[in-house]
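notes to self, project folder thing:

trying the whole complex as one job this time. last attempt i did each chain seperately and stitching them together was a nightmare. two parts in total, labels are on each line so i dont mix them up again. if this works i'll redo the older ones the same way
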Amino acid sequence: MSPAKIDQLYPSRTRRGVTPATRFATLIGDYGTSDFVMKRGGRLPEVTIAYESWGSLSPNYDNAILIFTGLSPTAHAASNAENPEPGWWEFMIGPGKAIDTDRFYVICVNSLGGCFGSTGPESINPATGKSYGTDFPEVTIEDMAKAGHHLLHELGIDHLHAVVGPSMGGMTALAYALQYPDECDYLISISAATRALPFTIAMRSLQREIIRCDPNWKEGHYHSDEEPLSGMLLARKLGLVSYRAAEEWHQRFDRARVTKERRQGKPFEIEFEVESYLDYNANKFVGNFDANSYLYMSRAMDWFDVADHGGSVNAGLAKIHVNKALIIGVTTDILFPIEQQQEIAEGLIKAGRNVEFVSIDSINGHDAFLVDREHFSPVIADFFSQS
Amino acid sequence: MSPAKIDQLYPSRTRRGVTPATRFATLIGDYGTSDFVMKRGGRLPEVTIAYESWGSLSPNYDNAILIFTGLSPTAHAASNAENPEPGWWEFMIGPGKAIDTDRFYVICVNSLGGCFGSTGPESINPATGKSYGTDFPEVTIEDMAKAGHHLLHELGIDHLHAVVGPSMGGMTALAYALQYPDECDYLISISAATRALPFTIAMRSLQREIIRCDPNWKEGHYHSDEEPLSGMLLARKLGLVSYRAAEEWHQRFDRARVTKERRQGKPFEIEFEVESYLDYNANKFVGNFDANSYLYMSRAMDWFDVADHGGSVNAGLAKIHVNKALIIGVTTDILFPIEQQQEIAEGLIKAGRNVEFVSIDSINGHDAFLVDREHFSPVIADFFSQS
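result (full assembly):
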């Protein structure tokens, strides 16, 4: 796909997260049919999926690993020649690393519905010439998995060595293995869920409502220079609260105050370091992420339910036919708690699958896979060394 | 104090939570001095404290129990002749109940800074004739305790049988016992803390920021008919998320959906029962609570630190000289976790106090004291039967 074509599809401001390393595949319809048909009935005349890759595809196309991301990251999972910036999983992917690019051809996609190069609410609706906004069809985790599958089809890869994903990406990896059971040898699901618990739904629903209450949201039809930034800032802060564990913050910040120089004397301003941490990190995110993408992907996680595939969670999990699955959870995760990882592992074992279940005792909560190299790298390296 | 006087102090809309059962005491200055001087330097020329009472004061004034509330409730802790509506602690207070009004004279106060009859940001600033708003001086938990102490002074009570409080009220009870060590025989602290943890600060800070981001907040100088209701609604929802435990919602709602009749077809509207629960309960609160009071009291909880009283938490706790303390916590409380209750108990034991520590294995999280009669009533009844 030529850069010119990309410019037509995305107005300049929407090429967030796109670098010289980003590749694009345009998927027209369902393997040759006219539209990309979505789980809840929506249709897209054209789908572009942005991705990055590392390593080389083997002559017989049998060494591909597909990675789905959580809600926030781009497809830039690791540095590469075209983009030497560290990726969001830099410690995990590379030559000699746990996901070894000397051995595997690794692909990471920006999910359908996202805003980092793949088709999403910010993309131009060919029918109107404007961004879809909330006219974008309802996206599900299954659609994200299907778009990843389409991408592989375009690349000529009809079988994966492994599908891998953390958080939302773990749900997508489950959906992938479920929908294409004979096209994948190994599965790694990290801090995911077969379906969200009500506490998690509440946390996400509240983030969505905060964004929707921003007067700039305008029912999803905001202009690019007037995005609902204050809603996004607050929603991201709430997200961050749910991604980390109370004990980590206790050890890290306790009740430390920001220095007087960093205060402006306004009523109810930031005073504790933990508030400053949230503000700093949320501000890094806001302006780089489309609010409607956030809404669509957040809701997709609430909707996802393995039980939709066969009537019960275990019936759904039984559709997964990988040689072996690695299911990882973190004991301090409040968003996708360890019991939910156990549920995935037990369901797969019940269905006769070969499963390795690893409960990681990390202080980093749901975000552990992003930061706790020490715990995560050996587990994944070990899994692939036996694959 | 005459009703006419109250009308002068509070514009009609601000008499929230005030019923025929509400009594008022006007406290002029610090026991006869000119102003009510606050911990962080602020001064109030006049303080009114709203309270309710149950039972009869004994001839020698030795049977009084003072109850401080959490952030949200009024002084109407239980029904009485003037207001037969059930109170927020109806199962706990009454003839023959755990806090037995046949034996005790029970007083519950609306905290200083609140909006249910006591002086707070919504009260009229005598200097301007308008509500204080954010010109109200900074309120601390210690000031709330002091205002309660002033009230007892006005009532001629110089010694308490017990001071009791859950949540913010537990912090206030600790502050009371700390500041007036020889004026109180027993202490009951429920789901409180010697000082807030960063996770708890983050949750509260975010609620405050949500309110402040409501365009109607106007730096705290909003008009009575244009309050920041949408910010309050969202903040309350976030509060509710932190007051309950994930497992309770899992058992209660799981992934149940609201019926189609209750949906309006708007994008991203309520779909899961847990969202509907939050919406229903938050809406009951909003409009009945002053946004600035919420901000002031929420911040007071973040500021509270027993270590301010002697240099360390244990030095502070050692100032408490009650005959016996009952420290209650709930295993599923994520806001004031059980470890914090243990810290209070251990600090008091270290100081040589007689302490009963009760860890309640309730599914109701921080709110358990409001709803889990079965676990709470016997523990408190037993404590008082030995007092």
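what i see at first glance: Chain B is about 35% helix and 15% strand.
need to look closer tmrw
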